[in-house]
Here is the input.
Amino acid sequence: MFSRKRQRAARLVRVNLENPASRDAQFCIGEYFAELDQRFDTGFDPATSISADVGELIEPAGLLLVARREGRPIGCGALKFHAGQPVEIKRMWVSKEARGLGLGRRLLHELEAEASRRGATIVRLETNRSLAEAISLYRSAGYDEVPAFNAEPFAHHWFQKYLDRIAISRSDPAPMTVGRCQPSTTKNSGTSRIAALSRSAPGQSTS
Here is the structure.
């Protein structure tokens, strides 16, 4: 149960659809990559991981959500769409400063809702054994562990969930605000860094 302090902090969080090339999106993904590299037993090499690049996270190919608190990016999550196939959840990450606010679960719920609104009935993700908190989150959110459905070299667990389209809504399980933002036109000097790193982290999937 949230303490009053955590409830107040959670109320300041806003989650928006985001241009994956924006400064805040690239910041989140860069932090996500750096954390995976620290936490994985073998480190993380984006060149050998399944991609989720900028062009793959723009509709109709996919989408990206970014969470902010008082204007600062503190988390992200993405979807990749495949015609006739389950939707993939990617780039799930929450900053260390924002953990304990229920943001990982909130992002997961919102990604499921976005997938459902676009007609998806199944979502999938994979994760690394080092991300114990992510594994616990997925299991508690109704994901079933399934046989490997891709060749992600950094994954040890693969999960799948059937979406209940009646249950999926924008009602918040935690007191956070969800909105939509216009694609950013701000140029980002970090673009080349993200393109070079292209990898994943907590509240986290591995790709």
Notes: The first strand starts at residue 13 and ends at 17.
